[in-house]
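Two proteins were folded this term; both appear here.
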Amino acid sequence: IDDNCSISPKLGVLDLSQKNYFQFTNGKGETRQICITGAIKKLGGSQVTYFALPANDATGFAGVTGTIDQDNKIISLITVDDLSSVNVDFKLSPHATISPDPSVTKVNLNADTKFTVSAQDGTTSTYTVTKAAPEKISYGYRAGSEKLLWSFDFTTAGFAWGSTNQASLASIGNNLIVNMGNGSTPIYFNRITGAKIGEINLGSASAAGCVTSDLNGNLLICNYVDNGGTFTIYRTKSASAAPTPFISYVNATGYTLGRKVSVQGNIDGDAIISAELESWNGSSSFVRWIVSGGVVGTPEVIAMSGVGNWSAGVNVADIVYATTNPADGYFTSFYDADVLHYMKGTANVASLNPQSDGSGWAYNNNCLDVKAFNGAKYLLLGCVSHFPQWSINTQIYLYDVTSIGQFTGTVDSSPALMFKPAITSFNGTDGVSASGDVLLVPSADGYTLTLYYIDNNCKAMGAYQFDCIKK
């Protein structure tokens, strides 16, 4: 109760099956009667929130995640594989049950199959699982499809919170990989439900740098080396398979390498890999590898002009290419300029200024990703909090950069801005390391785009999802 208020008699052990009456007195001495009682209310949720057929290495089945239309209660499985006898991983509303239970009994999903979900209070919903492809809208994600999948305090998943954390994200299949860059082994999660699965098989690789991923199911893991050391990028297609060396580069740049690495495209085909170079004395350079037909080209050191310098630690730049064609340019941003640049060659050709309310000084605007989805090109910017103790929480901005002509204004009010959710912080004390990452993952079937973020100072990680299903 508020200051200078009281209740009589004093609270003690109550039988909440009964009505318990008290006299409440406010700070002005005014009194009224209140009643404290309890009631058990059963939950009425009867939704399927996740429906997937797991991969089977023995048969070569790659797995498939259902696209759920909650309005029409249709779950679409977009695959040509034989689904005549499959088990299903699924997630329901809390305390709901499903019949038949496809996690216990194998089911035939080659034909339309109905499942009944029963809520705790007895209400039911019937879902039809169909092996078909729903119609898409003509462009980008569907307005109104934005939804929060999950959000939690990452320390509840077993991560330590500390000043040595340099968080990074990657995704392969249905897995989200989180690396803290502090010498610990990366942990992976079900990327749709947020459920922790366990540690990846790191083998002999070092994850002291960061993790990232391409568009063909490759997880890339790198070490962190000073000038004179050997920078190694490892690769694997499975969280349970030990990674193998992919790129080995003797770092003679005069800088430190490995804190932030990005890949655009498919390293088994065409891709661009970029890795920022950092120094406490300042840097505006990065190393680039162009992959053509699965063959890694000669590394190039690219020195940007007209953007200023970043330093080291958490204040480094992220660099991500718009496409696999270097001529299409790239995006970069870093602290403490906090300007989001669109670059071609070595020159800035368009930019977004820091937050319009002048709060850019409180954020580390250096987490980027770019992905194509349903004919659109999206750029994601993550702004990590320096000062969570002042209720300065993570900021996330999603832009449509298909046409760079809309790339003007500020990061929080550009005409290109499509989505800026309010992010929950799980820390109100002083920050220890303003590191983080963001990631965009288009689904293999092309129907969903999932956004991931992690902010070390706010102890926050979460996911939002968008779809392009015509309704």
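Next, the second protein.
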Amino acid sequence: TKDMQLIDVKEYKFREEERDLKILVEQEALGLKGKEKPKPAYIEIAKKLGIEWEEFSDIGHMRYGPYASFILDILGEYVSNIIKSLPFPVYFVKGTNMFDLNQKPIAEHVSLFGQRMYMIETEDRKLVMRYAACFQQFSIARNWQISYKNLPFGMFEIADSYRFEQSGETLLCFRMRKFWMPDLHVFCRNMEEAKEIFLILHERIFSEIEKLGRSYTSLYNLSSFEFFEKEKEFFAKLLEREKYPVLLCVYPPGVNYYWTLNIEYHIVDELGRAREISTIQIDVGNSKRFDINYTDENGKKQYPVILHCAILGSLERFLYVILDNAVKKKILPLWIAPVQVRILPVSDKYLEKALELGNLLKEIGIRVQVDDRQETLSKKIRDAETNWINYIVVIGEKEVNNNVISVRERGGQLSEMKIDEFINEIREKTKGYPQLDISLPLKLSKMPKF
């Protein structure tokens, strides 16, 4: 609990406002499964955005149409900006996605990871497909000459990652065999420094999910109960940021774990299922395993403590939260919407004005299309709603004569606005988020139907 009491899960009395914690405990500790539906509601939203399984690939591989591809790109930009804002240097790297199991550090790490692996065999090698960015970043770091003065620092990559999930367990945007992992590793001088950075990342994990109007309920995995007993002050600080008490899971002794603490941050989705999104971990074994070392102030060789962290989780899992939100809120966050505005001229007479406004909005970085099709206004409005467009702008005789536009935010009422007012509203709602263009024709009639 938040006052550091340890209570057996079978004896804990859940308060009404602790529904999410109760679901997590039932699912992870008591083995009770939540309700599943053959087709969760978010799947329809995903389909409209072009997020779906790739039938010509292996099970658990996704494909992304133009809208979905843009969403993935802007999420990548967003998490990269988060990483750049952290209060210590982070070096962006890139590399390969397959690693040689004849290399001792790789083989040892694979044996300890405990997840199903994708394997590839070539003429004389057996390779494992990476399941995060660990192998590549550790392989790079082991060749660096590092001084204590350089620490702490991070390494980061949005890594294409692979896990051989069972075919019956795959779930679009949540459990795939191939996904994108924005993987951060922070190299720290010692455990004290690692705990300080851990608290910074813990705070950032919560602040990011709260921007979506959600919160986490957490599972703390411990490789030994002794670490909890020794670091109670540290755990008390972690609990200050938690909304609920946390579930502790102590792993059985007798295994040479490379980590001491791993936190899984869960949301509860619209099906009432706890879903792990973000994670952070203290690694005390891999620096020595991969021979990643630094020279301390006395000229002696030391091995850093490494933090593994996915602040948003995988790109797909963070998108899962956004889509789960959309089921309830009926709208996407404006900053992530592939098309933020669709302009509807009431007839061809007002198409020129619509295109003029479309070009203006496009030039200042607003993602816009003009529905120039030969359809009724009501049909155009329905299609815009179906395609999850945030703003519908109508231009007709009244709007041209009064020098205004009629604006309807998705799910809202039509209202008249000056163009400058409309632009300022969009800028205010997207402030602090990345601004990316999308490669679509301005005229909707020029697009294939997808």
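The domain at 334-446 is CATH 3.40.50.800 (Rossmann fold). The radius of gyration is 25 Å. These notes refer to the second protein only.
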